[in-house]
Protein: isoleucine--tRNA ligase
Amino acid sequence: MSFNIVPEKINFPEEEEKVLKFWKEIDAFQTSLKKSKGRKPYTFYDGPPFATGLPHYGHILAGTIKDIVTRYAHQTGHYVSRRFGWDTHGLPVEYELDKQLNIKSSEDVYKLKGGIGEYNEKCRSIVMRYSKDWENIIGRMGRWIDFKNDYKTLDITYMESVWWAFKTLNDKGLVYRGYKVMPYSTACRTALSNFEANQNYLDVEDPAIIISFPLVEDPETKFVAWTTTPWTLPSNLALCVNPEFDYILIEDLELNQKLILAECRLEELYPSEKKPEEGEKKQTTNKKKNNNRRKKRQQQQKKKQQPKKQQQQQNKQQQQQQPKKQQQQPKKKQEQKKEKEEEKKPKFKILKRFKGKELEGKEYVPLFDYFYEEYKPEGAFRVICGDFVTKDAGTGIVHCAPGFGEDDYQICLDNDIIKRNGKILCPVDESGKFNEKVTDFANRYVKECDEEIIEMLKGKKRLLSRSKISHSYPFCWRSDTPLIYRAIPSWFIQIGPIKKQLLVNNLKSKWVPKNIQEKRFHNWLQDARDWAVSRSRFWGTPLPIWASEDFSEYIVIGSIEQLKELSGTKEEITDLHRHNIDHITIQSKKGNGVLRRVEEVFDCWFESGSMPYAQIHYPFENKELFEKTFPGDFVAEGLDQTRGWFYTMLVLSTALFNKPPYKNLIVNGLVLAEDGSKMSKRKKNYPDPMLVVNKYGADALRMYLINSPVVHAGPLQFTEKGVHNVNRAVFLPWYNAYRFFVQSSNMLFLDYNVKFVFDPKLNNNSKNEMDKWILSLANNLLKFVKVEMSEYRLYTVIPELINFIDELTNWYLRCNRDRLKVSKGVEDCLDALHTMYEVLIIMTKIMAPFAPFITEMMYQNLRKCIPESFEYENGEINEKSIHFMMIPKSNESIINETIENSVNSFKSVINTGRKVREKNNLSLKVPLSEITIVHKNETYLKELQLMENYLKKELNVKKIVFDNVEENWVKFTAEPNGRKLGRRFGKRFREFNKLIRELDHNSISEFKTNGSIVINDEKITLDEVIINRGFVANKTKYAGMEEGPVTVVINIELTPELLEEYYTREITNRVMRLRKEAGLIPSDQIEIFYEITNDSDGTSLKKPCLEKTINNKKFTSYFDKNLKTKLIPLNLLPEYLLEYKIKDNYDDKKLHSIGSAKLKLLFVKKDLVVDFKKVGENEELNLKVAHKVRGMKPTNDKITVTIDETTVNLVLGLNVFENVSDMVFN
Structure:
């Protein structure tokens, strides 16, 4: 046989495990790299993940995209180095260790026996904890990437390149020291990047208060501000107004106070001034509810405080005095009326209006005096102007605490209340506790002090209102504790000087999808601020800055050699982590004594952003290699990396090389839980990835992820059912097509002794239209994939690949099954096999990057029909793995648009014909005498005639008539759309009504084709006319349906001959279905026995005559050809053969019912059978002989059997036969 037998059922995960074993045996990945040495390099940058946790669906998705693109690059003639990388520094590692060692603050680190050194070495020991799991999971997903030659951000070579980059930026004047208000985790005691802060927003309820700030010049007049962070009020240094807003001075008639606020924000103090829209949750509404609740609680408290007897007495009096219900109603109405009148009373009056800029410079009385003496001389406690004040919340007056708000810091800096390199008010320590200067709340966690601060303000009569507000607030992504914003001393990279070039370089690369590049990322770049690259941590690449105590002098080091030279140290520097270099000092050249290294380490985003050059130790090594391959050809990560890795790479690349770091970039969306929420380990709202892989296979998971919105940055709500459906709808049909091809090739060898050997030259010789069509489609697919993959549009490629599998299985294979079963001769079968083989090989090559396992499995069997010495036109040989093969180029000479159009028309007619059958309750199994295809275009009909034989087969008809005279079958009539034309023509409508109704069939047909018609110089379109289609043929004989310009008409009359043919097919169908249930393959030899009950007269579909059909000699050859054996009445079955029964359908009503008749079937393995009558009279001996001969092979048509010393001689064709049918019918 040409191929290994392919089983009917497949376990995809098990087959994938076999492929993994095969790849390991041949060292497939490394072999592919060796084979591609010397080709044009394709540079891929892999973003380094943390190894402190296991990969999730986001990693698997990004990894799949990377694997597909790099595999495709390899299979299109490139050398693709694929190194895995690890982000080994930063908060995730320290956080894990802090939990282990119960470390709460930096002091705890210093208290360790080995100090920072012990801490860092413990970090080093856990950083690669899950690396083997990563390698196993990524390998199981089929991704080829080099783990042995990986890079780590903790490597000394990597860290040295990071130093070089920072020194280069400093030499360009882009580095400075300052303060930055940053998201800060009090649990982890570190600042976070905005990217990290954006990863974990939760809905919380916080206090929302309105407070007053009396003017120094007029204490009776007060500014009104609003805040949701009362703990920041002790640090207030200014109030900010928008210079362009309208502000008002009002007199509160209830409080008898004069207040200043923005006119557009009156609703904050007086909710009734603006009625909330329906369905809109307003904080003011919450405030009103809270006030009502507060009043109710006060009344209940007052009631509780009354003596028990007094309360009982009051209750009794109330019951005695309670009027009747009829009397109570008027009083209630009066109370409601009084309340409404109270509500109508004005609560304030406006005294004055002015612009915000008129308030600038006015001084106010601070809420607290903790920092009055220190900051009053600096110009604090006055009104300043800023355009960040908005109209959507608050009072239009913002309280500014520069140590706890980015806008606050910047506006106070701009107004000289604080200095860039000077002191900054931040009385909160690294654990989030007030320091000793805030005497009332010292050593207490800030957010726990909110309520007491509010009570203190109330006591000072500065509290105007209090309520609660529900809003989304950032939490630490590691500890799940609320973040605060806190001023941190930092080292910065200036973005301003390079911003213009950042925007230019952004547009030099190709993004998929493009809108992320042009909108989201562009906007982020436009608003980008200076980048704080330092972190007060221990485990990271140390900042290479040696500075004097007052920072008046500092040196940035760019290499180990420079450090040794400037410090004069003789020790060998083998590691650059803090504990190995912090002791090294440099002598000041300016008289500042000793310069010591600053304590900070790099933000890990600076390290990962340095990956393109740091991974190969540039510029200390591989200088030529880097400069030759930079920028990289391809990167891919998730949407969240637009503000992370994509951004940091672009900033550093632009600042260092004035180039974008990548040429092509794919942004994937987020994989969410099935309900649309974020996937959470804690909630367990998603299936374990490896359980899914072990259940359905990695190929199925890969295809499911790639054929979804996430490939173009949309969200995917993950469902396990979706992965299952990939196997069901894509891989199983493809596998079955491959299996049928293998079976057909093997049967050709078994039945005709013709071994299939692939010869690509034969494919161009096939005259069959469907062969030409599927090869044309395959080559068009190659052309399409090449274009789309060059544009990195994976989301357009996958649907086309899936669509091609559908065309192959549901059209080509179904239409050509008979040819592959040698129904039209060996030569025609070989044409079909060559075509099928060529298409399967093309598919395995195209699909190899997307589904590496199933393609390898198929290829290993398919390559058996290619001689080892075979060489393709491009010089390729019969490679050991599909992943060593190149994706072929499209053969333009095979692409045939005419054939493709013809088959498309064929498919359209087939679908219409099936609909007509369905409408008339005529199963496709029932043969019909005639079908007529009506189309006025003769060219269309001629093209369709090429498919005539296929049309007959697919629609199960004896004759096809092609008719270009529509009027023979249908008649179009038209009537006006009165609503549209009546409005358009008015009084002239009657005129057009008449003319439209008079249109003949041909005019209406042209109208339909053109989409418009001119009547009395007026152009009328299809939507203005109602076209009716009337079927004019004999409806008792014909039924028809129109699809576009085509009408399909079938003859619905059933003759006895047609019915008998139908029964023949039904009988065959039942046999084939039972074969399938029995797990038999075509080469399995069986004998079929039948029994029929409830047989009828054969006059209708419900009254068959099966016995008559089986015995009709006209159908004998049909049964022989399709069943490969004769049908034998069950009563002729030798009783002893029941022991060799394979399968029966006795208990399956669906399988043995044909109309009112019952067809019982029984299968027995085909083997030698003994005719007892012609052997002898000893029945016991005969039975033993019959069992003994099964499995034996005659010699010269003779068999000798010895039973209990008795020898029996048998002669083939006389008393022993090859099968029952030979014995019965011959």
Q: What stands out?
A: The CA atoms of residues 210 and 226 lie 4 Å apart. The longest strand covers residues 201-214.
